[in-house]
């Protein structure tokens, strides 16, 4: 019985690993699509070069 349970455990671990890898792949593809859409829809600004160079820390 011990040999069967060992084989069953190995098959279960292999299946879990496969499912995890697939889920990570799908998540990666989704994130890449999301990031590409954000880059395309980001507004292009035409601010002067001096803007954002200093920070007023006095309140």
Provide structural commentary.
This protein has 59 residues and is mostly helical. The protein has one domain (1-42). It is 68% helix and 0% strand. It is built from one helix and no strands. The chain is elongated, with a radius of gyration of 26 Å. The mean pLDDT is 84.
| Count of alpha/pi helices | 1
User: Average pLDDT, to the nearest integer?
Assistant: 84
Euclidean distance between termini CA atoms: 75 Å
Q: Which regions are unreliable across 5 or more consecutive residues at pLDDT < 50? A: none
Major sheet: size, sense and barrel closure? none
Shape: elongated
The ordered H/E elements are: H
What is the alpha-carbon Rg in Å?
Answer: 26 Å
What count of structural domains? 1
Helical percent range? 55-70%
Q: Which class do the helix and strand fractions yield?
A: mainly alpha
Number of strands: 0
Fraction of residues in β-strands: under 5%
Descriptive labels:
elongated, mainly alpha, 59 residues, YjfB_motility
Structure, briefly:
It holds the Pfam family YjfB_motility. By secondary structure, the protein is mainly alpha-helical.
SSE blueprint:
Layout: H1 2-41
Protein name: YjfB family protein
InterPro entries: YjfB_motility (IPR025906)
Pfam families: YjfB_motility
